[in-house]
Specification:
By secondary structure, the chain is an alpha+beta fold. It has one domain. Helix content is about 35%, strand content about 20%. A two-stranded antiparallel ribbon has the order 1-2. A two-stranded antiparallel sheet has the order 3-4. It is globular and about 35 Å long. InterPro entries: Sigma-G_inhibitor_Gin. This is Inhibitor of sigma-G Gin. It comes from Oxobacter pfennigii.
Length: about 60
């Protein structure tokens, strides 16, 4: 039996999904992410959510001058 965890996207508790670098994505959000075409208007939103929630602030900081 899977231990329910909170999805970083939808915030729902689920026992089925994937863990990436210690962050959980439920099966429903995973399916949405995998099936989103790069031309879809939501693609960039999902991309930024992944950068923020999985890789952290390091990708969102302005480069040093």
């Amino acid at each position: 039996m899977d231990i329910p965890m909170e999805c970083i996207f939808c915030k729902k508790s689920s026992g089925t999904g994937i863990n990436i670098l210690g962050e959980f994505i439920c099966i429903d959000c995973e399916e949405t992410l995998v099936n989103t075409d790069i031309n879809d208007e939501n693609y960039e939103i999902y991309r930024e959510l992944i950068k923020k929630n999985i890789y952290g602030e390091i990708f969102l900081k302005e480069p040093s001058k």
